[in-house]
Amino acid sequence: MFHINSIPSQEYWEHHEGLPCLPPPYKRPIGRPTKKRRKDSTEQSSGSQYKAKRRYGQITCQTCKRAGHNGRTCPDKGSGAAAEEPDLDEDEAREQEANWEETMEAAHAAYVADEEELTQNHPQTQPDHVNVSDLFYLVVLNCWICLHRRFDLMNAQTDAE
Asked: Of 81, 85, 138, 141, which has fewest CB within 10 angstroms of its CB?
């Protein structure tokens, strides 16, 4: 066994020209570290960490999009009148339908002109690729059909009221 004589204070240590005497590296103690920041003494606590607060923000209904109630207690739940899109008045609906009809007529005229050009240049061959004008015509036709269905539904709802 070795015996080390104790020295009363640091002033009696020997001074060496070399590396300084450093403390051991810090090791985090065992256990779960805290994640929350430490609040200052002037900060007010937000309440209990175990109880939920009694008031939350304004509740909005998912059915009719109005504030003050939820979907379970919605008065419009049975009628199914959701306010997802603002209703168009009749003048706007007619104007929109007229614009769609003009677009449809122009697309149809372009489609017919392309078909005539194709039949004149190649009377008996079928194209292997998709023609862009055909695709545009089909998209516009599909949109026009959807618009008419929506317009018919709007008319049916106004007639029912």
From this structure: 85
pLDDT 10s digits, 67-93: 888 888 898 887 655 444 555 577 777
Structure tokens at 134: 């055909």
82-136 confidence digits (pLDDT tens)? 444 555 577 777 788 778 788 878 888 887 777 777 667 665 555 556 666 676 7
The residue assigned the tokens 């066994």 is 1
Contact between residue 47 and residue 53 where contact means Cβ atoms under 8 Å apart: yes
Q: Give the residue among 115, 105, 111, 104 at the shortest CA–CA distance from 141.
A: 104
| Cα dist from 40 to 9, 49, 97, whole Å | 38, 17, 65
